[in-house]
Design goal:
single chain; 164 residues; alpha+beta; 4-stranded antiparallel sheet
Length: 164
């Protein structure tokens, strides 16, 4: 009986301490929630550098995406005006049938035209074993990022749902 009495007395004595501590914790949470957002860390989105090296990196990403069959990834790096030529899903459906687009690409040169435009020289070894091709493309700086602009002939073909 004495053991039961001691346990009950201990529970009664400890309960207010536990409840008080719990109330103190929840009270401090309310104080934290009422603080202004000005003391919270902020994340700033920075723009890509507006230089030839960054323009080249974007072109290389597009070409890597094409080489790896990531058609959606390539389309996502296009300029806003190029994206109006063909929707993403239609582009994916079309370009997956264009064997001439597949294969390895290599950027061989970058020439800045102005602060927001660069010309990219490239070579392409088609997957079908055809002869290597060379060409140029344009990369434009839009909304803080470099974007790839397929050549006008390719865009015209895409508008007609044809392989360039």
């Amino acid at each position: 009986m004495t053991r039961t009495f001691r346990g009950l007395a201990l529970a009664i004595a400890v309960a207010p301490l536990v409840l008080g501590a719990a109330a103190g914790c929840s009270g401090s949470d309310k104080a934290d929630n009422s603080e202004s957002a000005s003391d919270r860390p902020t994340v700033e989105v920075t723009a890509q550098p507006q230089d030839a090296q960054s323009a080249q990196v974007t072109a290389e990403q597009v070409f890597d995406n094409l080489s790896e069959g990531d058609w959606a990834g390539a389309w996502e790096l296009w300029t806003d005006s190029a994206k109006t030529a063909i929707g993403k899903d239609a582009y994916i459906d079309l370009v997956s049938t264009c064997t001439g687009q597949q294969g390895e690409y290599q950027v061989t040169g970058v020439t800045p035209v102005d602060d927001s435009t660069a010309t990219i020289k490239w070579t392409h070894a088609p997957a079908a074993g055809a002869a290597n091709q060379t060409g140029t493309s344009t990369v434009k700086y839009q909304n803080g990022a470099w974007r790839f602009e397929p050549d006008p002939a390719a865009l015209a073909a895409y508008r007609q749902n044809k392989c360039p």
